[in-house]
Structure formats: C-alpha cells, structure tokens
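Moderator note: this is an archived Q&A kept for reference. The question asked for a predicted structure of one protein chain; the sequence and the answer are reproduced below.
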Amino acid sequence: MSKLNLKNCIITLSGILTLFIHSACTSQNPGYIGRQFQTLTAHYNIYFNAKEAFSQSETKIKETNVENYTQLLEVYPVPTEKTASEQTTNLNEVIKRANTIALEKSASTWVDDAYLLLAKAEYYKGNFFNAAEYFDYVSLNYTGKKEANNRLEALICNAKTNMAIQRQPEADSLLNLASQIVTKSKMHQSILNATLAQAAVNNNDDKTAIKYLKQAIKLSKNKFDTIRWTFILAQLEENVGLNNDAFAHYTRVVKSNASFELSFIANLYRIKVKEAQKGENFDKIATLKKLIKDDKNFEYIDQIYYQIAMAYLQTGKLDLALQNFKKSVDTNPGSEQQKGLSSLKLAEINFDSLKNYVKAQVYYDSTLQFLPKDYIGYELVEKKAKNLQYLADRMQIVDKTDTLLALAALPDSVRTKKINAMIALKIKAVREKDSLSNVQLLPSSNAFDNKTKSNGVFYFNNSSATSQGINEFTNRWGKRKLTDNWRLSAVAENSVALANNILDPDAPTEITQSVKNNNPDSLKANYLRDVPLLPADKEKANIKVLTALYEIANFYKDVLNDEKAAIKVFEEVLKRYPQTNFSASIYYQLYRLYTPTDNAKAEEYKKLLLEKYPLTDFAKAIIDPDFGKTKELRLAALNTYYETVYDLYTQNKYTDVISKIAAADSIFKVDSTNLLPPKFAYINALATGYTQNINPFLTQLENITKTYTSDSTITPTVLKQIIYIKQNKTIFDNRTFALVALPLEDGNLPVQQRYVSPKVVKYNYERDIQPAPVISKAIDHDKNDKKRKVSITNQITTNPKDEVTNPANLPGAKPVQPNDAKKPETLKPAIIKFEDWVRQKQAIVINVLDRSLNIAKSFAGVSKYFLTKFGAESTTIVIKEFDKGSKLIIVKGEFYSKERTKVVLDNFKEKINEYIVMPAYKYNTFIISDDNLKLISSQNGLDQYLKYLKEAK
C-alpha cells in the first residue's frame, strides 16, 4: 500500500473513531459500543473517585459520633447536621459526581449505583427526605437479578431513613419487602439483620432484636460493627435478664481491640452484671473504687463515681449516693453529658426522696445546662425545672419578706445592729472565699509557670495548668457549661444561697455590687429602703407572704401531688393569717386532703368551714355533692349567652349588646363569685363608649374598678384606660362618641391589652373562686399596730411604656379574656399571616402536586442545575413532605431580594424541561421569603400561602 493510501486510511479511521467517541458520549440511545464506553468512563472516571470520597466521609462521621452509654445504643447512629458539618464539602462533591452519572451517563450500568450513592450522601448530610426519594427510586426501578444487591441495600437504607424521621410503620414495611429478596451477599444480609434488630427495639421487642443482632454479628465482616453490635447485644440481654450472656458479651468487648472508651464502659457494665450474678458475694463498690486508682481511667473517673453512687442508691444508702453523685458532677476533667446525668440523679433524689424541691430545681437547671436537647427525656426535665422554678420563686418571696418583716419589728437601734451583723457576715464570707482561692492559686500557679517555661509547653497543652485554671474558675464562679453568656445561669445558684440564709439572693444589683466592693454603708441603705416600717408597707408585705404561701400549698397539692407538704403549708397559712379571703378555700382543701387518712381532722375542718363560711361555694359543695354539676350547667348557659353578646359586639350592634347585658342579671341571677360579671360590665362599657360621649363611658369604667376590686383580668386593664383617658381628656371631650371604631388588629395596642378569645374555660369552684387576699386580722410585729384591722385594695402600677400615644387608639378597646380561655384547636386551622418580604432572603419552591410521585430524577436535575450555576457552598436543595398533599423541592441560595430571585427562577424556567421529568400540570413553582417559609408546616399552610399569592396578584 502506498504511503498516500496509508495516510488516507489513517485519516479516515481517525474520523470514524472521532465520530464514534462523540456519538458514544452524546447520544441518548447509543449502541452497544457506546453503552460500553459510557460504562467504562462512568466507573473509572467518576464513580470510583466518588465512592472513595464517600467512604472517607462515612468513616470520619462515624468516628465523630458521641455515644450515650447510659442508654441503649442505636444499631446505626442517626447522622445529624452537626456530625456531618465537617464533611459537607466532601459529600457535596460526591453528590456532584454521582449526579453526573445519573443524568449524563444514563446508558451505563452504573446509574443505579450512582443513585444509591446520591442517597447515601444525602442521608449522611442529614437530608432524610432527599435520601428517601433516591432510595425509593433505586428500589422501584432496578429490580433485575444483577441489581438485587443494590435494590436490597436501597430498601434497607430507606428503612433506616424512615426510622430517622419517626416513620416506623413505613420502615417495617420496607424491611418486610427487603427480607423477601435473596442474595448471596453476607454483607447485605448482615446489615439487613442489624436493621431488623433496630426495628424490633423501636417496637419494644428486645427478644426479637437479640435474635436478629446475633445473626448480624455472625454474618458481619466489619470489625467496627461487630464490636459495637456485641456491646448492644449485651445491653439487650441485660435488659431481658440474660445476665450470663450479657456478661460474656461485655467480656468479649473488653478483650477485643475496641476503643478504650467502649472497653472501659463494657468493663463497668460487666461489673454491674457480675453483681447481679453473684449477689452479696461480690463487692461491686470495692471493685469500682479500684478502677479510680488506675491512671488509665483518669478521663473516666466521673463515670466511675456515677456507678458507685448508683450502687449505693440501690442499697438505700442515700447519703453516700449523694456524695458520689456530687463527686461525679465536680470531677474535672469530665464529660458534660456525665455531669448532666449525675445532676439529673441529684435532682430526682431531692425531688422524690428528700422532698427538697428548691434544691431539686437547681439540679434540674444544671441538668439542662449539660445534657444535649436531643437527650431522651429532656423535655420532661425542662418541664420539671420550669415548674419547680415557680415553687422556688415563691419560697424566695416568703424568706425575703419574712426577713424584712422581722427587721421591721425590731427597735431602730437593734435593727441597725442586726443589719450590720448580716452585712459583716456576708462580707467576711466573700473575703474568706477570695482569700482561699488566692492561697490555693499562688504556689501552684508559679510552679506551673516555671514548668511551662522550662519545657516550652503551650499553656493549653499542659493538662495540669488547664486543670488548675478550671479549679480557679469553679472556685470563683461555680460550675458553668462552656458556652456564651454563662453568667446567666447564676440565677439558679440564688436558690442555694437563699437556703443557707447568707444574704438575700433576690437583692437588687446594687446590693450585690456593694458586697463585692465591701461597702457596708451602701448595703445598709439598700436594706433600710426595703424594710416595711409603715403600716401600709407591712400590710403589703404580709399579703405577699400570704399569697406566696397559698400558691406554694396549691402547687404541692396539684402539681407535685405531695399531700403532706400541702397540708403543712395550708395549716401554716391558717396559723399566721387566721381570717383571709383564702380561709374558706383552705378549710375546704384541708377537709379533702385529710379525708382519706384522718377522718377526725377532716371533720374538724368541715365543721369550721360550715360554721364560718356557710354561704360560700365550698360549703355548698360539701352539703350538696351535686352542687358543682348544677353550678357548672348554669355557668355553661351563661357562657353561651356571653358568646352571643360578644358576637353582637363584633358586628358593631352596640345597642343590642347593651340590651342583652341588661337582661343577663335577671335571666341568670349573675353573682359576684365567677369570672363573667366583670366581662359583661366591661363589654357593656365599651358598647356605651361607641354610642355615647366620654362621661357615661368613664363612669362605667370607674364603676368596674369599684365593684370588681379583686378581679385580675379586667380591672387592671380598665385602670390603665382610665389613666389614659384622664391624660388625654381634652381629646375625648371633643369627640361625639368616646371610642372610635378600629381594625381588629391594631399594632399600636400593647400585647397584654389585646383581645384574646371570647371562650370561657369551664367553671371550677376550686380554681376560679379565688378572690384577691384580704387580711381581716393583720399579723403585725409592731406592738402598736396589733389591734388594727386592715382592708386591702388592688394596687395598680402603670408603666409609661405601656401607654398608647395615638389618642384614637384607646388601650384595650376590645373585650379582654383570660389567657387560659383559649378556643380549642379542633374546628378550624389557624389563619397564617404572611408578609410581602421583598428585601428578605428568598427561596425557590417547586411544588409537586402528587405526593405519591417519585421525584428522584427531577430532584437530581434540579440539583445539577442550581449546584452547577451557583455552587454547593452557597446553595442547599431539600425535599419537604407533608402527611397529605404536596411534595416540595426547596432551593435556597444567595437570593437576597424578590426581584433577584424572580430573575433566577425565570432563567431556570427557560430550561426546566431539561431537568424536571414530569408533565407540567403535575407541578408549579413559586418564590417565598425565609420568614414565610418557616410558617408553612402543613399542607394547610401551603394552601394558605398559594391563596395569598393568588390574591396578591
């Protein structure tokens, strides 16, 4: 062949090869060779590197997971945004690469692997709805024999995903389907059995979980999983009483190459199980104390003290248990989680056994400082802490006010000496504490400095120096979580200081500062200012004590169910204040509290109630067992009548309102013991204000304050309104009608004066009939005032900030209802108020109208478009689902205005058919601000927003 012909052949072959490569890379329907070429490039150019990157991230996320060994470990720890935060960039790169295969190498055999990798990456980022969509896509679309392993893994991982979002029934269904797929892969059968074990745990079936977990361990070739699952197996066996098996499996973990922490915890649990096996012949506490002496366990001493405390607690040695729980909290270094768990035990002991609720509140507060919010039971702890704070606050009021009353009862010279002594004691205590801290610090501090300098060691790399710093901080400030604004938690310590009676912890800031500055004169001035020397001040102080004690007693009875404590406080109130507006209620409560245990005492209080307060509802309730039902029926009718009146008011039918209210008294014989009469009077006054001038309106308001002096809902508001009217009398005098009609929502009205709800909570004579305290016989420590009788009226103080500046907007020109009288949330969904936030960060939403559609391919396309155009660092794309209705694809990025976001969306719409593979009638798109997006938590919220958009056009 001539050189010319050879050259032409080469050129021709090169052209053919170029055309082949081009067609193989770009054709949507390539031939065999094209498919093989796509498979080759997809695997080695893209998938291999993406898989390696994912494996690295997966390993690092598992390593950074923090375990809570006091609870049953999860077979597969659920990833969180926090655990994945350091791997987000790497996982985004995995998603980008896998997306390329899914969308551009559709003819290759690696598409199912790509979608599976996409799903795993989204799962480890904590985007569970995204992951579920991809897992669904793989399991539904790749059902061949060659794809069985990927389909099985997709079903298993999708079950884990559904468990992560609390959809256990869906997870069980997926696992049932996965169990029907037979493959030869031991790895996949292992993870299937492990996931079935977790599902059994979630369904409270520990015995079945043990069966599956044993099979998972037998099939597993992953050493990390095998050791971890063996520990969980031992936990499960311990739960069901298989102590011999649990001991054997804990021992296997101890003797394995497990991490030191897991090995240490397994050893602790092994000691616990051994005690259960051998009973009294095994000294668990002595064994645990030996662990403290081992230097290897230095970082885990707090956990050892916890276990020692638990051992003492089980044997009933409460004092020793408390000591060791405190040591666990005080140990430095120590884990915050363990400090939280030990604080929780201290709180529970003080709450349940010692009935020291003030200390319990302090320890509950510490628990909240240390435990993470995802800790199981965190919400219950938070609730108890808040409840006990209510109790602690009232105890502080009693202690503080009693101290001030005691000082007021002393002669001037004695009072001054007493205050001086209190101040001197406090200043001495502060000085001794500071002096002790300095003595402890100086010698060791120099030693650490010299050691650090000579060794050239950075301070924070020197464990001894940092430990000394921690001790100094603790001496000065107490235990604090490593967080911003740590001083705020000092509130809790006030309760402890109060219990020790060192100095009033509720004192003004200037007192605290004066103590710090050792300024006795300033301290004395502050004390003298608060001492109630005048009769009226003493009266107010006694009422504070009375009200606080009464609330404490009811709290013991109703919230803590501590009947003995409730009886004690109720009787203390009667002893200190024999005749008050609370007396009838207290006699009734004591009658009911004593009835089950001491019939004689119950009869005594019943007799006192019937003799002294025969006309009260409490007496009637004893005489007539059906009294409460009868009164409740009567009040229910009155409630309905009030709602009718209120509806007329909202329709501006003020004349009808006035006539209806005029008939109310004769129809129902309204008495002054329930909540409705002041409401009727108030709505009547408002109707008068809209139909007459200022004088009759003002007269009716003033009558309310005189008639309903003890009312705590209407009267305070009316008093503020009267002040406002008098301050703006000229403006009101010039009006034809006192009130000007206003929109229902007036942003200028103070929050506490806005209308809440017309509904009235059902009548309860034990709760609602509690008038404000009136002390008929004052307990006064001043001998000259012993015989004086006291009558109390509400003292209303107004805050200038609460006053309304616009005279047209009279404060509270709408009926005010009790906060606890809210309308039940059953009939209509709440109306959401959306705002047109033009200059706020916006999101683009693709609203898929049929939730049953799998949108994995469309989601991949949307991700490719926006991540390529705007970058993964500044763009997030997530799926959001509701129980019924739509499925949303939400795109967030650097879209800082509505106009800018509209341009982005319009550009996307031009190519939307390339990326979204579903008919146009099955979805729509819209823009929404961040704040508005937060308001949409259900399909109803979405429907309201779409309606809002339609009306805005």
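Archived answer notes: Residues 412-455 form the longest helix (44 residues).
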